[in-house]
Amino acid sequence: xxxxxxxxxxxxxxxxxxxxxxxxxxxxxxxxxxxxxxxxxxxxxxxxxxxxxxxxxxxxxxxxxxxxxxxxxxxxxxxxxxxxxxxxxxxxxxxxxxxxxxxxxxxxxxxxxxxxxxxxxxxxxxxxxxxxxxxxxxxxxxxxxxxxxxxxxxxxxxxxxxxxxxxxxxxxxxxxxxxxxxxxxxxxxxxxxxxxxxxxxxxxxxxxxxxxxxxxxxxxxxxxxxxxxxxxxxxxxxxxxxxxxxxxxxxxxxxxxxxxxxxxxxxxxxxxxxxxxxxxxxxxxxxxxxxxxxxxxxxxxxxxxxxxxxxxxxxxxxxxxxxxxxxxxxxxxxxxxxxxxxxxxxxxxxxxxxxxxxxxxxxxxxxxxxxxxxxxxxxxxxxxxxxxxxxxxxxxxxxxxxxx
Length: 404
Description:
This protein has helices at about 5-20, 35-40, 45-60, 70-75, 80-85, 100-110, 125-130, 140-155, 180-185, 205-225, 235-240, 265-270, 375-380, and strands at about 25-30, 40-45, 65-70, 90-95, 115, 135-140, 160-165, 175, 190-200, 230, 275-280, 285-290, 295, 300, 305-310, 330, 335-340, 345-350, 360-365, 395-400. The protein is α/β, with parallel strands linked by helices and about 400 residues long. The protein has two domains: about 45-265, TIM Barrel; about 275-400, Lyase, Ornithine Decarboxylase, Chain A, domain 1. The strands form three sheets. It has a ten-stranded mixed sheet. The longest helix has 20 residues, at about 205-225. The chain is elongated, with a radius of gyration of 24 Å. The two termini are about 45 Å apart. The model is unreliable at about 1-25 and about 30-35 (pLDDT under 50).
């Protein structure tokens, strides 16, 4: 008997929606939802971990609010998804990004909190940025001209941020030139300074000098009657290392995701964080290679004794660091196995002479379950930095869980 077409559509959609709205999964990427278990990697995000981390970071800064830096698509974890998770938190004062299109994507997702664009903007998007109340950074004389011209065309006032270079050298108004540029902004009744910020270097002695420069500028602007809005200096490392950097708000990146910017930092015991994500992928191929067989274009891995090799559909083109083949491990059925090769699209895992694994089994490449597969553990095993393992491509689908 032929199935009624309407009934077929209803049953298919109901089944998919039922899966997506299961108690544990809060939201997912519809496009990849059906094929994810069979052929693609995915990222799982923990709502409770992110909210816990935001509270802990504020606690690190003696209760100061947090400007959440979600640059580079939140290190590949999904800026829109992470912004949605963090937005309800009373500890989050604003979201910060570097790319104009990402600021607009976050606003389009319904995020009402202040969004700071720390980088430049395309003139084609200028009016939309103003309409969507994105705070625009003024980081040079040229950017002042650009924003000033925009203000003459805009029907509404524009919120701007003074981005000061106190010595990092890569971005911002040279600190000696700030008073003149700030005065020009103050004289434009179409512009208002809602934030003032700078970025500190890691060496503490010079960071202290930067703080002094920043505070001297703020005093001079206050004396001139120029409002400077919310002031923030501290990236993740300075939040932990230099309390004088906390100012009126702190500006973490990697801390939000549950990782510390340095290896074995003592603050990790005082203010423990929760890893907020998992990177997973299914086994798509399982073969027993013979003694002497090799894997990869460069024959990177040579089989010393007959062993089973599993293939996962994720590689360096997806953002899984190629250094994984130098000692990283993945979790399969509760056991850790070594990564023996990473190419653009695949990673190979050595399972040993015998295995009960099957195609379709799920591997956790990064996650909180074992120390070896945390970002810190990954970095230690490959003798690199934990930042190596947060660089995933936007194409990897995301699932938001209430908790892990």
